[in-house]
Amino acid sequence: NPNGFYIFSPEELSVKTDMKIIITDLFINTLRVLPDKGSLLQKQVDDIDDLDLKHNQNNIAFNFAAIDYRAPETIKYFYMLEGYDREWQEVKEKMENSSYYFNLPLGKYVYRVKAFDIDGTKGEKTILIRINPPWWETWWAYLLYAVLFIGSIWSFIQYRSRSLRREKRLLEEKVTQRTTQLSRALEELKQ
Questions:
Q1: Cα–Cα distance between 5 and 89 in angstroms, integer?
Q2: DSSP one-letter string for 51-82
Q3: pLDDT digits over 57-115, tens only?
Q4: SS3 letters for 162-182?
C-alpha cells in the first residue's frame, strides 16, 4: 500500500553465505578518529583499507559489527592482528565487539576481523596497518648520520694533517735557523 507501512520479519530473509562486517569506530591513543580534512581519515572508517600511523600512534582500538538481521545474537566474532597476535582472539562479551592493541612496535600489520553465525554465514574485513618509525630512525636519517660521521672523520683527518704540516714546517724552520747559527759559529771559530 503506498500510504501504509511495510512489515519486516527477519525469519523471512533468505540465507546468505556471507555477511558484511563494518568497522564502526577507530580509536588512536584512546581518541576516536573521525573523517575530516585535517584528520588521519579522509573517509569513513569502514571504507579504509590501510592505515599509515606515526610512531607515537601505536595504541589502537577498533569497534566492529556484522550486518545480519536474522539472528544478531548468534554471531561469533574473531579478530587478529597479523604480525602481532599468534592466534585468533574470540570476542567473549556479546555486546563488546571491540579489539584493543597497546604499544605496538614499529612495523606492518594486517588487522582481520571475521564473523560467523549458526547458519554458516561468514564475513571478514581486513585493514593494512603501518606504524612508521620517527624521522630519526628512517633510512634517510641513517644515511645522514653516516654522511655526518664520515664528514667528521674526514674533517678530523684534514685538521690533523694541516696541524702536522704546520708543525713540520716550524720544525724545518727551526732546524734551518739552528743550522745557520751553528754554521756561523763554526766559521767564527775558524777565524
A1: 42
A2: EEE-TT---EEEEEEEE--S-GGG-EEEEEEE
A3: 999 999 999 887 777 788 899 999 999 999 999 998 766 899 999 999 999 999 999 99
A4: HHHHHHHHHHHHHHHHHHHHH
Are 120 and 71 contacting, i.e. CB atoms less than 8 angstroms apart? Answer: no
Phi and psi at 8, nearest 5°, equal -120, 125
- Please tell me the total number of residues recorded for the chain in this structure: 191
6: helix, coil or strand?
Answer: coil
Cα 190 to Cα 177: distance, rounded to the nearest angstrom: 20
Sheet holding 122-131, edge to edge: 50-53, 122-131, 107-116, 76-82, 89-90
Q: What 3-state DSSP class applies to 92?
A: coil
Q: Quote the pTM value.
A: 0.74
How far lies 129's CA from each of 36, 43, 57, 81, 105, in Å? Answer: 19, 16, 11, 9, 12
